[in-house]
Amino acid sequence: MSRGSEFVVVANRLPVDRTVGADGVPRWRRSPGGLVSAIAPVMRRRKGTWIGWTGAPDEELEPFEEDGMELYPIAQSAREVELYYEGFSNATLWPLYHDVVAPPVYDRSMWDAYVRVNRRFAEAAAKVAARDGLVWVQDYQLQLVPRMLRELRPDLRIGFFLHIPFPPLELFWQLPWRRQILEGLLGADLVGFQLPGAAANFVRLCRRLLEARYVKQDVFWDDRVVRARAFPISVDVGELNDLVGRSDVQERVQEIRADLGDATVLLGVDRLDYTKGITQRLQAFGELFDDGRLKPGQAVFVQIATPSRERVEQYQLLREEIEQQVGRINGEYGEIGFPVVHYLHSSYDRAELTALYLAADVMVVTPLRDGMNLVAKEYVACRKDLRGTLVLSEFTGAAAELKRGAFQVNPYDIDGLKSTLMDALEAEPAEQARRMRTMRRRVIENDVDRWAHAFLSELENPAARPGRDESE
Ligand code: ADP
Ligand code: F6P
């Protein structure tokens, strides 16, 4: 046990997925989503091990190195992928934690698989971590790992970060396994959330459900203090700056603009997920043509949607709905060679995404609920030119930091969304610059390095001693 990794990240996915190219050759490619975008740069800078799943069922692989990181694969059988990943993680927890925007499924066999797979991750971390090492567990798929790991390795310092919202008591209470989840999280020394409100929800639940004593956001449990804190996650500003400065990226921006004609370009970049409010934004955009407030040729919408969780029913339904919507709008208002909505169901590399951000006049980010939303921050980080506007849902974590510069919107209010899109489309360059400058200040000051540093230094050196016990 004297050897091993001093720093271990445990996440459902490895930062790379195995894909097979058109030439039939298997390759590793960066995994989708905000978690990987945020942790991969931190991981590359610290010598550590990342424990996670390769994204394919029944794949048993030895540890390997890729992209400057030590990777330790965890296998999942096809049945476990169905019950633990698609099931309990993404058909139960995901909708429950996102305001039940889709109905959560409560199924005991899914729960059993969640426990089993969480144990496998905990056992791997117990094996890989050096004595007194630091283990950082990520996200809702692994909420039981902190407690399981503490039972196996009480010497470790354990942090947990939840990348998605943490629901209020009134919703969390639905969960048949609510107690086990809370006790799982309480195995950590530090539980991190995106926003202070989520940390407050967690402490309130510990008090009501477990009758735990607490002081402010310190919970007393099992003769330990568990700290709940907010650490709003961010983006790698340095990486995006480098991409913006590349001549091939700038050339690509010109190409995209030339392909889209003279139209004002609205852009959406998301995983294809029902929490992202894609149908609401397309409805608003389509209605602007129906109302005659926009004319074909005046504006185009480019919607990039990364395929995600494609075997989960709600995701299949969403895909069908979006494809119908896009078909209807283009059928009504498109012309040969000039659709008004460009819908791309695909994943792109960072350079192409950067070029798209730079080519867009209006970035449209309209989730019904989102823990943070890194796309909004990536757009702002790329716009050194102080051009472009951001339409941002009030229900994203990012709105807490960007509300002064963004055009804020309630995505459930289609009329409000329509007029906000028009305001953003029509903003003069001086207003664009003023808003963008305000947002850039926040994003540049609080980039992903600062986020990781804040979390890890709080884990290593608790900032404050607990004060008066408010539960007594
Ligand atoms: P989530 O974690 O729910 O997917 P975020 O907006 O926080 O949402 O993070 C999404 C991340 O995935 C961002 O870093 C974004 O650049 C990346 N991403 C989103 N769509 C695509 C795409 N089509 N191709 C490549 N990367 C994408
Ligand atoms: O950021 C939320 C999150 O669910 C991450 O945990 C995950 O890595 C990412 O989105 C992508 O989701 P998935 O791993 O299900 O493709």
Automatic annotation (TrEMBL):
One of its GO terms (molecular function) is trehalose-phosphatase activity. GO terms for biological process: trehalose biosynthetic process. GO terms for cellular component: cytosol. It comes from the Bacteria. InterPro entries: Glyco_trans_20. Pfam families: Glyco_transf_20. CDD domains: GT20_TPS. Belongs to the glycosyltransferase 20 family. This is Trehalose-6-phosphate synthase. It comes from Actinomadura spongiicola.
